Hints:
It contains two helices and three strands, in the order βαββα. By secondary structure, it is α+β, with helices and mostly antiparallel strands.
Amino acid sequence: MSDIEWRVVDNVSGSAIAEIIKGMLEAQGIKVVLSQEGIGESVFPVTVGPLSEIEILVPSSQLAEARQILEDYNSGKLENLTYPSQG
Protein backbone atom coordinates (compact mmCIF):
# COMPACT_ATOMS: atom_id res chain seq x y z
CA MET A 1 0.00 0.00 0.00
CA SER A 2 1.28 3.46 -0.85
CA ASP A 3 2.20 5.96 1.86
CA ILE A 4 1.66 8.93 -0.45
CA GLU A 5 -0.72 11.57 0.86
CA TRP A 6 -2.60 12.99 -2.17
CA ARG A 7 -3.85 16.59 -2.30
CA VAL A 8 -6.16 18.30 -4.79
CA VAL A 9 -4.20 20.89 -6.76
CA ASP A 10 -7.01 21.81 -9.18
CA ASN A 11 -10.51 20.92 -10.40
CA VAL A 12 -11.29 21.05 -14.11
CA SER A 13 -14.25 20.27 -16.33
CA GLY A 14 -13.70 17.57 -18.91
CA SER A 15 -11.16 14.82 -19.37
CA ALA A 16 -9.28 16.52 -22.24
CA ILE A 17 -8.05 19.45 -20.15
CA ALA A 18 -7.40 17.12 -17.20
CA GLU A 19 -5.16 14.94 -19.38
CA ILE A 20 -3.31 18.00 -20.72
CA ILE A 21 -2.61 19.27 -17.22
CA LYS A 22 -1.64 15.78 -16.07
CA GLY A 23 0.86 15.48 -18.91
CA MET A 24 2.28 18.94 -18.22
CA LEU A 25 2.81 18.19 -14.53
CA GLU A 26 4.25 14.74 -15.21
CA ALA A 27 6.70 16.27 -17.68
CA GLN A 28 7.98 18.32 -14.72
CA GLY A 29 8.44 15.18 -12.60
CA ILE A 30 5.25 15.48 -10.58
CA LYS A 31 3.14 12.39 -9.91
CA VAL A 32 -0.52 12.91 -10.82
CA VAL A 33 -3.76 11.04 -10.22
CA LEU A 34 -7.07 12.07 -11.80
CA SER A 35 -10.29 11.47 -9.86
CA GLN A 36 -13.83 11.80 -11.21
CA GLU A 37 -17.30 10.84 -10.08
CA GLY A 38 -18.29 7.43 -11.43
CA ILE A 39 -21.01 8.73 -13.76
CA GLY A 40 -18.54 11.05 -15.48
CA GLU A 41 -16.71 8.05 -16.88
CA SER A 42 -19.75 6.00 -17.91
CA VAL A 43 -20.66 4.88 -21.43
CA PHE A 44 -22.35 8.25 -21.90
CA PRO A 45 -19.96 10.56 -20.02
CA VAL A 46 -21.21 13.76 -18.48
CA THR A 47 -19.32 16.72 -19.93
CA VAL A 48 -21.03 19.66 -18.21
CA GLY A 49 -21.99 20.54 -14.68
CA PRO A 50 -20.67 19.29 -11.37
CA LEU A 51 -20.46 15.65 -12.48
CA SER A 52 -18.01 16.57 -15.24
CA GLU A 53 -15.47 17.90 -12.74
CA ILE A 54 -12.19 16.05 -12.44
CA GLU A 55 -9.92 16.49 -9.45
CA ILE A 56 -6.20 16.67 -10.18
CA LEU A 57 -4.31 15.21 -7.25
CA VAL A 58 -0.58 15.36 -6.52
CA PRO A 59 1.51 14.13 -3.60
CA SER A 60 1.46 16.61 -0.72
CA SER A 61 5.27 16.83 -0.98
CA GLN A 62 4.91 18.20 -4.55
CA LEU A 63 1.86 20.41 -3.98
CA ALA A 64 3.69 23.76 -3.86
CA GLU A 65 5.65 22.98 -7.04
CA ALA A 66 2.49 21.82 -8.85
CA ARG A 67 0.65 25.00 -7.82
CA GLN A 68 3.50 27.14 -9.18
CA ILE A 69 3.48 25.28 -12.49
CA LEU A 70 -0.30 25.70 -12.79
CA GLU A 71 -0.04 29.38 -11.89
CA ASP A 72 2.61 29.84 -14.62
CA TYR A 73 0.44 27.90 -17.08
CA ASN A 74 -2.71 29.91 -16.29
CA SER A 75 -0.88 33.24 -16.50
CA GLY A 76 0.61 32.40 -19.91
CA LYS A 77 4.22 32.23 -18.73
CA LEU A 78 4.69 28.81 -20.32
CA GLU A 79 3.52 29.85 -23.80
CA ASN A 80 6.79 31.34 -25.04
CA LEU A 81 9.25 28.71 -23.87
CA THR A 82 11.93 27.69 -26.33
CA TYR A 83 13.16 24.14 -26.53
CA PRO A 84 16.51 22.86 -27.70
CA SER A 85 16.47 21.54 -31.26
CA GLN A 86 16.29 17.80 -31.63
CA GLY A 87 19.08 17.45 -34.10
